[in-house]
Structure prediction request, 963 residues.
Amino acid sequence: MHLVLVDGSSFIFRAYHALPPLTRKSDGLPVGAVSGFSNMIFKLTEDLKGENEPTHFAVIFDYSGTSFRNELYDQYKAHRPEAPEDLIPQFPLTRAATRAFCLPSIEQEGYEADDIIATYACQMRDRGGKVTIVSSDKDLMQLIDDDHVQMLDTIARPGQPPMRWMGPEEVMKKFGVTPDKVVDVQSLCGDPVDNVPGIPGIGVKTAALLINEYGDLETLLARASEIKQQKRRESIIEHADLARISKKLVQLDCNMPLDVPLDDLVRQPLEAKTLIPFLKAMEFTSITRRVASVLEIDPDDFEPDAELAAKGASIPGAIDVSDGPAPASGVAGPDAHAEKVLEAIRAIPCNLDDYEIVRDETALANWIADIVATGHVAVDTETTGLDNQAADLVGICLSTRPGKACYIPLGHTTGNDDMFGGGRAEGQMDMRLALDMLRPVLEDPAILKIGQNVKYDMGIFARYAITMAPIDDTLLMSYALDGARNNGMDALALRWLDHTCLKFTDLAGTGKNQLTFDKLEIEPAAKYAAEDADITLRLWHILKPRLVAQGVTTVYETLDRPLTPVLARMEARGVSVDRQILSRLSGDFAQRAAALEETAYELAGEKFNLGSPKQLGDILFGKMGLEGGTKTKTGAWATGASVLDDLAAQGVPLAQTILDWRGVTKLRSTYTDALPSYINERTKRVHTSYNQASVATGRLSSNEPNLQNIPIRTEDGRKIRTAFIAAPGNLLISADYSQIELRVLAHIADIDALKDAFEEGLDIHAMTASEMFGVPIEDMDPMVRRRAKAINFGIIYGISAFGLANQLGIARSEAGEYIKTYFARFPGIQDYMAEQRRIVKAQGYVSTIFGRKIPFENVNTKNPSERAFIERASINAPIQGSAADIIRRAMIRMERILTEENVPADMLLQVHDELIFEAPADKAEQAIPIIKRVMEGAAEPALRLSVPLQVDAKAAENWEAAH
DNA sequence: CGTTTCCCTTA
DNA sequence: GTAAGGGAAACGC
Prediction:
């Protein structure tokens, strides 16, 4: 008899870390570890053919959660990082893979895989059979014995044979003792990986020495006083208990009650009809081929496993629809699954009276127990305002399953009549107590927190020292699915549930008399609040399977969701803005505006409102009778900058005066006057808010205040940037991608000339001009270069002769000639454009290089201008969007790498192709190369761009100087 | 008092 | 020609 026990968990982690990420082609389900795992299992079954052929065979997994060892020692495996996000959905699939190979998949609650392995091994040994443990985990070496139990390490290591059998000899090499004494050695030396303490100051070598001298741990501890070395003796005496605890942690349990008896592990032959459908559902083509050839069957005779193909990632806690009625269409697959879930959720009534108000510890404890049992919870916070850096927590809502939700009032006040805001309302828990109870749940890596716009709640909780993780966000899910539509909760509730949510304004009123949430009566507030949590949870159930069905899981999980905590931290940090500089500038601008106003009145011959386009139009084209005025679409005179520029060039001094006036008043009203009002009382810094789901292409947007449109072009404008300063003792670092969109275009459209130019570090606009107009790059006429630059930008924007002519102030026919010349020289660009036009019409969306979908409505419109607009936007979207994806990737990994490199630089702002950091003055130069490296390598390893990315970075006291 | 239009700022 | 946010005037209730 020969029993083979595979340490399944170590296979999974090895497969995950050793292989590049792999996702299922059809829907982006992460399957890299499943693929590696399947390969390893298959290879193992092949390698064990012949004289080693097993009679019994099983794969053993760790049961998720804690084991009895945690009760012995709460720090056991405490430092173990949680599994990566894209690995978690692969765990159930590896179990499925095991079963597909006709192998028993064994795991048992409360026990680690090692204990299960130990128990089976002992039973087989006692029967006189042979045991092979397939693992590279040294903790299992205690099970090795001379005749019966050996280990097999199949993990590939450079310079070593692919299969390494391990017996007592290898144990002696590793631990310096015979296998039966491994436990004693480990009890002494401990194990930092599993956080087994051992005795401080004793390593493997010393431990082996001591055990070999004294025989075993207890004898050693009893006779510790005989040890000659003082330090060692004292440490052992002092920490004897630690060694005893360590022994219990390390000692594997050979007598645990097994759910599956040894006899049930009898080896079954591989069966094509179970294995091939699994492999096909996973879309593992090469292993399918190899298996088919070994089994001598034709894989085409088998269909993919419908349930696995449809189900995609098994979602913890997902509504079970496996027994539900088939949808009308009868089509199986991820779409059908998503539709079933939608129907199931919609069938659950939404009753506001069912919601609970949690007012005491007992009620909250019940909810927490429910959350722990469920493994996920929808969370929503209610606060005193929309700015999460200024607002205070008023209450928390939770929902664990559709229709079941609660509201926990914590900060409601009474007596809205008295000017002090009244006292604390009755029937509320102490906020500190409630938060202390909820903190372990909100921070538990095993409990998923679901929200709608989670970044807001993360920001609130962060101010109460709670780090909410891990998360799912229905706003971001909807964004990944449907793009920058209205993805607000009210809209989603209506779209997916036909449900109209209670309106906040109905409770609180509108305008300047609107009440803040803390002023609301608890009972009506609770209905509104709990409804939000209920709806959020329902939306999560509905949207999650749709991500799989629509093939956007990877986008959501790698580009959208992980960015949320990063942005939450950036928002919380804020940026320092110098009030004095702005105030001085404001005065300066005001003075100049006043002078310009006087001039304007004189030139116009009357006083009028310079800020009124209507009045200005009347004066210019009415009273002064100027020619060439055009009307806007509402029939008013157009007075935009281009119109005034023309007039000024024709010698109308008033036009230039207005332009200058608009320049300074714009700077004053939008920047110098508005920015100081955003300085937060508490932090003395300005905290913008990033909208992660509002831009169609995947860019971020920034508001309240918008820090992505701070002036830079004009000299006056740049002065405003000098007010963005580093905190004392620090510097700001600005790092920006050079020409990222043109580089992305060169990659996507595969334009050799552009790629070569970037590779050689040429001036890309000069090179374009040289190619188009046949002039040398050296000593180029700036006007020629300017034309080429406009064309390059035009290409990115989905060029039209009309637009280019406008931009360059030339005739449309001439612009058309330029474009023709350009396309003749770079035909690949024209192909790219045609392809995007085709794609958007065929499928209703275009995609970035990382798979983000940018949907368009009315793609088959007959309206020529609307059609042209959609075409231009769909040419631009993959370029702008891919660049946006790249900087997102950089941001997601930036903080971890800076931390690892021990460089304390804080990421503060993002401006599409630029990141702003704040770092101690003496660390800034150290940070710059790291920041550049992360940004320039941000596409990898998912993609290898065919052009280099270039980042320029500089540190200085203020943003103007750093840029 | 809320919404739309016009204009202007950024990448 | 792409993608945003926002201030002030104008409009509409």
Remarks:
- The domain at 2-265 of chain A is CATH 3.40.50.1010 (Rossmann fold).
- The longest strand of chain A covers residues 393-401.
- Chain A is about 50% helix and 10% strand.
